[in-house]
Amino acid sequence: MNFNYKNFTVYGENPSNCPHCHRDIEPIQISTYAEKDICYSIWKCTFRECGKAFVASYKITGQRTSEFVGFLDGTPIAPHWPEIINKLNSKFITTYMQALHAEYLGLDEISGMGFRKSIEYLVKDYLIQRDSSLEGKIEDSLLAKVIGENFTLSQEADLKDLLQRATWLGNDMTHYLKYHDNFDILDLKELIKLVMDEIHSIEQKRHYIANIQSKYKK
Ligand SMILES: [Zn+2]
After folding, report:
1. What is the dihedral sign for C-alpha 164, 84, 82, 95?
2. Dist. CA 193–CA 163, nearest whole Å
3. What percent of the chain is modeled with pLDDT above 90?
4. At 29, is the secondary structure helix, strand, or coil?
5. How does the average pLDDT of the chain come out, rounded?
6. CA of 14 to the centre of ligand 1 (A)
7. 3-state SS of the chain: helix, strand, coil percent to 5?
8. What is the enclosing helix (H) or strand (E) of 83?
9. Residues 6+ positions from 151 with CB-CB distance below 8 Å
10. Rounded to 5 degrees, what are φ and ψ at 45?
11. Contacts 24+ apart (CB under 8 A), 97-102
């Protein structure tokens, strides 16, 4: 698409999916409006059963260039939640989804902090569910300390390594100084996904090893 801004024709890439139905589409452009280096363009989804209108925002980056920032409406797609995560009595999923929504709206400074907070809920609530004697003891402890002290078994080594790295990146997005320049919010989300998969794997292994006993005669 092209739009006019300060007497220049600026190019912006057409959205290629719909923020409501999440299908890959070639949407129809309805109108555009640009001010203060931001362009808002209204589109209509071409998928028959959706057909909803949505607004895409673009940051004007040069005399003729702009960059897609995000949609102003619709919903982000949630990741797959393993069953153990879904059943966990925790604010993890709610917090993660709020962070995802912030990211989706282009609020990248806020979303990183939200993902960091979601990791804290996941770790502490998972540990408490596993061992109720930890309740009242770990909630106000530093996350790094909780991770370091509680995932000590050899089969939890990968989980611990992944959690530490997720926390480091999350801290970068929460505090003033950033220490890991080559990694961003996509890496943090990938680490959280790996953490969920690792927890799922550990719990499934525990379940089968504990519950299937040998029936062979000794
Ligand atoms: Zn749609």
Report:
1. negative
2. 11
3. 79
4. strand
5. 93
6. 14
7. 45, 20, 35
8. helix 83-87
9. 157, 159, 160, 163
10. -70, 140
11. 100/76, 101/75, 101/76
CA of 20 to the centre of ligand 1 (A): 5
Sequence letter at residue 87: K
37 CA distance to ligand 1 middle (Å): 27
Tokens 């024709």 belong to residue: 9
For residue 73, report the distance from its CA to the centre of ligand 1, in Å. 12
- In this structure, the dihedral spanned by the alpha carbons of residues 138, 144, 149 and 150, taken in order and rounded to 10 degrees, is 70
C-alpha 19 to ligand 1 mean position (Å): 7
DSSP 8-state symbol, 133: G
Q: How high is the pLDDT of residue 123?
A: 98
Ligand 1 midpoint to CA 81 (Å):
24
pTM for the complete prediction? 0.76
Q: Which residue has the tokens 């982000």?
A: 76
199-208, long-range: CB < 8 A, 24+ apart: 199/82, 199/84, 199/85, 199/126, 199/159, 200/82, 200/83, 200/84, 200/85, 202/155, 202/156, 202/159, 203/84, 205/155
Tokens of 28: 């129809």
The yes-or-no verdict on residue 210 having pLDDT over 90 is yes
Q: Dump pLDDT digits (tens) for 106-117.
A: 788 899 999 999
